[in-house]
User: Fold these one by one.
Assistant:
Number 1:
Amino acid sequence: MQPYIAVPATVALVWRAYSRDSLTPAGLVVATLTAIAHAVHPWSVFFVLLGVFFLAGTTVTRVKHDVKARLTLSSSGSSGGEGRRTHIQVLANSLVASVLILLHYRQLLARDKSSVASQGCWPYGEDLLVVGIVSNYAAVAADTFSSELGILSKSRPRLLTSWNFREVPPGTNGGVTFWGTTAGFLGALTIALTSVLLLPFCPVGRTSRTGKLFGDNQPGLEGGSGWGLREKVAWVFAVTIWGGMGSLLDSALGGWFQASVVDSKTGKVIEGNGGAKVGSLAQREAWLTKNTQVPLVGSHVKQDGKSSRRIESGIGILDNNAVNISMAAAMSFGGIALTAYIWNVPLGDILR
């Protein structure tokens, strides 16, 4: 992006996060660095994707926030609901995309020096890193929409990873509903439409590359490198479906590897602050109380020696942030690998 656009846009994005108290102080610092990493790229689309994800994500987070707060509990003992996001949560959603953006910027600079290609447009069948970047934001947007809006569903969520698809409390990791899944695909569609409007697709017809005009450029689906209407429609469809699948993958990873801890008295899911683990603390307190008979300050153990918390699902290997970044990486690099196969492009091209 041009500096006269990038600087005020970055300041505006960070100021909005600060004024709305959306991020912790460390989160603001990391968000600023993330915005800078996106802004240095000559294409504005990636910075806009970051902005759309942030603005849309904070918007759906605030939808009926008071209602959502009553559906879960915080690990601190207060009502649940998403609070200020930490620097770890910012990185979980944007680190993969930031790395890919910087790698793609490096590729563009190398091409410019060798006069092989320019920074002017994106040919069909090339630049796999672009697919990975858009896939990242489609997936994390789908996950955010699904989590924040799906919990409001009137129907009870069902555990995606259980053999009988059993009902679980709202907020359970791995729990899915029809409306939550639909909201996830809507989030991915938001990113898909933003990208198709702003990506510098090489057009069908005469294409400018390195300042020169070549002959007629054929559509990509007909063996050329141009992006016509069919190619763009296919792009929107593919990004939407792939991003929505990312939300389902996040549910699967959460259902298997992230412990969902439920308060035995209220039956509500307990959420860790900033996406941190909850289950390991409860298990440790229960074990210590049982084996030492020494009351613990702030313990979640009843007088009869039984824990007031129980594990609803998951084995507790990962916390929510680890699940998110694992999903983002899987969808980004999975999208790259799948596109490389479809376009018959060597995967090694992403490092050139």
Note: The first helix runs from residue 3 to 19.
Number 2:
Amino acid sequence: MADALLSKAQDLLEGQIDFAGQKKAEFLSTTVLIATGLIAFVIGIIQQDIHLTLWIGLGGTAIAFFMIVPPWPAYNEDPQRWLPASTAAPGVSIEVDGKKVN
């Protein structure tokens, strides 16, 4: 039971996302940070308050952090299937730094 729980926790914390998920996360973070920056700038100009502007920017950064950093399942909808490891064909040897590698 503890092994199953540990395995689930490890899967959650590993942070595996696919290539489409990386693109989605990058677009989302850029959009959130730009929108927050513009909103903070406009409110700061209207209110003439740099402190408020910085707090709005910090809040937007925190929102972007919690939307992007955890490995949400939406970022791993199409994982790549990797080929299994195989041994080299018979009679083929690889040499690295003068040593043969199997």
Note: The first strand starts at residue 94 and ends at 96.
Number 3:
Amino acid sequence: MRQCLTSPDGGYYTTQSRDRDQFGQKGDFITSPEISQIFGELLGIWLVAEWMAQGRKSSGVEIVEVGPGRGTLMDDMLRTIRNFKPLAASIEAVYLVEASPSLRNKQKQLLCGDEPIEEIDIGFRSRSKYSNLPVIWCEDIRFVPNDPTKTPFIFAHEFFDALPIHAFQSVAPSPLPPSTIQGLNGPVSLSKPTAASLTPQWRELVVTATASPSPTSTPTPTPQLPDFQLSLAKASTPNSLVLPETSPRYKALKPYPGSVIEICPEARSYAAEFARRIGGSPLPSKTSSTNSSTQTTKPTPSGAALILDYGPSATIPTSTLRGIRAHALVSPFVSPGQVDLSADVDFTALAEAAVEASPGVEVHGPVEQGAWLERMGIRERAAMLGKPGGVESEVVRTSVERLVERGGGGMGRLYKVLAIVPEGGGRGVVGFGGDVD
């Protein structure tokens, strides 16, 4: 997935031609910010509400977005936030984590217009058309400065689904070999099989090339066949010995041959990084050899992370790797580098990674996107935008319904929202059942 999506040599996001866009009606898919400006506006309102709940800090606020696409979401958020003067004045910088030079250029044009862009030690920098804020691009979140005195608000919309996954299948133990064999001087006892060989084991599903079709004298036209396929590894791999043992959720499925799970180590790493930036890393306890201290490297946790993506609320994703081209599902193994690839997000794994990484945070959600948008006031905002009975009103209404639709494969049901916030003794969070005091 990484090679197909972000390789400098032929990657889907990194080497697209100028006359083709991945996003929008003419591209391969449409994201929520492209459907309606209200989506980004409500994320901006959520940031305002969380900033207020944390005491309305007057300085040190940072906005970070990973995987910002064309910049549409950030543009709508910044346009909304500028109406809240005290918050706008407290923002020191906007950081965009982007690996694609072509997308970075599109983001710069939308967010900064004709402002010059310069290369700096951690990436590139320009100035926003909103309040002249510094906009800084980094290829990886590790390059974004991590200052415990700052208050980072981190957003990840349809970012985690594009991170590379590992797939595993539980296989039944092989039939027991005979305990003895006949030697020249009589029966010879064989060593007993190990306990591991008597129980189901995880095998990795690896990508292999498909067999070339046999030549025929009268070839017939057929649909394009995948260049690659998933195959079950014949033996254990380092990944199959380690990754499925990292969570009790995976271990519980191991005894059942045929069980398939998908694990995304990078997703857990990003969720943990978000949590540490908000709540700090735990400090070693002085009275115990275990790392159980509630003290962290950030004395006062602050900031928040909001993750919006598609995937199950509680179950482990299984066999969800997909390709998307021209708004249709296709094989993920056809035309590498020309097809978008994604897989369902394991929200429970993200929540586990966050709370394990920092005792200074708590997690809210995931909740369905439709319910979250309703709580954030999407219909009230739609009523303000559209003129009753007019064409514009119908466009707004249709867009809103698409975002909140919960029937069948509706975005309102498939997409989920999860928040990582400072540990606050169970306080309510806006959009997740809480309110602004």
Note: The longest helix spans residues 37-53.
Number 4:
Amino acid sequence: MEPAATDGSARPPKANAKAKKKPYHIKKADLHLDEYRKEQQDRSPALLFKRAVNGLRVSRQFHLYVAIQLVAIMAGYGQVMLVIGLFWAMVVNTGKRKEGEMSAYSLFNEGVEAIEGSTDMQALEQELRTRSL
């Protein structure tokens, strides 16, 4: 056992003459840090905000909407035009499904077919009937 230091602080344990090697070595190049940093920068709120502002600045639809909104405000229908504009934005920004991709809502699928893992009434009824109390 090592004696304590005279100033009251504990001494660090002596390091081995040879540092133990880890069973594996990870090279910095294998970590793909540059790609990770770029990915994180692409997600930064400042960059996303900048992209959104730039997209609005060059969008003809947005300019047309602002012009119609100003006319509607002068005519006294600003709130109505705002609601119409919000609906329009939802319709325009709704994504399109790829060929063969199914909707989560079976109503929109061909033949009203449910997706894998969704609960239907027959499965729910069967589960309730076979459940032991």
Note: The first helix runs from residue 33 to 42.
